[in-house]
Amino acid sequence: MTNRRRGTEPGALGGARGAVRRTGIPVIDAETVAAYGLPGHLRSVPDEIDAHDLPVTGALPPELDGRYIRNGPNLLPGMSGGHMQTGPGMLHGVRLRGGRAEWYRNRWVRTGVFEGRSLVRPDGTIDLTAPSANTHVVHHAGRVFALVEVGLPQEVTPDLATVGPCDFGGRLTTAMTAHPKQDPATGDLHFFGYGMRPPFLTYHRLDARGDLVHSREVAVPAGTMTHDFAITEHYVVWLDLPMTFQPALAGRGMPYGWDDAYGARLGVMRHDRPDAPVQWFEIDPCFVFHVANAHEDAGRIVLDAVRYSPGEFAALWELLSRAVEPPSPSAPAVGRARLHRWTLDPARGTAREEPLDDRAVEYPTLDDDRTGRPARHVYAVTGTEPLSRDECAIVKYDTAAGTAVSCPLGPATMIGEAVFVPAGGPRDEDGGWLVAIATTRDGTASRLLVLDAADLPAGPVAAVDLPRGVPTGFHGSWIPAPEEGRT
Ligand SMILES: [Fe+2]
């Protein structure tokens, strides 16, 4: 890229150009950081800062008017013990407007855990306002929520300040998945909550105005760790996979473990009929963290998701569940997962499954306007499984042609989830931009990359230098300007 340039005006929030301002949160001492022994790109940052008029390499598309916000775990000063990739949620936000990167800021999400409260009440129940909201950040009906699958949504402002837990006027009595799905036609937000105790699985729907208009229990045999699900135009697709709640695992992070006896099944349930039954389909045992998409095809339901074999998942879960120890420098990468397709035929009661690609990927994304509809393009990232030394790349699948192209990022770079931002005006499905945070493996520096989704191999069209290394986290969203409220 060429044409390196800098902003020419004072920061929109009144800060001096290029200045970094710190809030009152104290720094993590070096001893605490060392105790965690995490690879540099996973290490927590010690404080909250603001920076303005960020240096840009290349040319930011002027139509990108909004903010990219990404969530991830970030330990607090003095925290000890814990598990890999746990910690209070921290939001990292970058404001883009008019071809400029106006600001970066990062803020912890101030949940009960952040304030030092326990997850468990004296009566043994879980305080749903307490868990670290560290997994995703989404916007719906003019509100922004930080999410984790074991707690209530935590509302935050577009400027990343915590508002507090939200139960939609007392109607939401379960946790909320970090992966809700917005129907592009109705604007409804479909989601679910799962728990260790009955009801194990509950389906919910917010309407386009943000009111919780429907909740119903979905009968499953046990509490299973259910990270994601899918919708189509008419159906919800459930993943009931063999990671069951096992009290004996308490103290190892998420108290869920592989259960060979449980089996694995996908379920389809019409979401336009309040009491519709679930039709279940037995599948080969596996685990799925993330769905790419689902759609209907001549009466069949097609689900594309990133699938872990039992062996690959067992190794990953062992690493993620144990108290953090410095991994051996020679430890092999674990948790290789691949894009996979299940085709469910409700009329025949059959499930067919097939791998779509052999490379290891995670964090699938797509044009959200295609959620629940046929989508030709799916995006994902490679090289992100724990302890991987493979070169990271952003991948673009063409599921119709069965092909893929990628943008390799070099051996020193880790990449996070790539979020699709639609271009303005009439466009093809891949008419838009991919936005992702890239961090050096040693964690010392980060850039916000912007790529042309229609021409991934060309590389980034722009890169914003962030004022610090941003730990590789989990999920993020682009929040366009008209919905964001304040500047
Ligand atoms: Fe996730």
From TrEMBL:
<keyword id="KW-0408">Iron</keyword>
<keyword id="KW-0560">Oxidoreductase</keyword>
<protein>
    <recommendedName>
        <fullName>Dioxygenase</fullName>
        <ecNumber>1.13.11.-</ecNumber>
    </recommendedName>
</protein>
<keyword id="KW-0479">Metal-binding</keyword>
<dbReference type="Pfam" id="PF03055">
    <property type="entry name" value="RPE65"/>
</dbReference>
<comment type="similarity">
    <text>Belongs to the carotenoid oxygenase family.</text>
</comment>
<keyword id="KW-0223">Dioxygenase</keyword>
<dbReference type="InterPro" id="IPR004294">
    <property type="entry name" value="Carotenoid_Oase"/>
</dbReference>
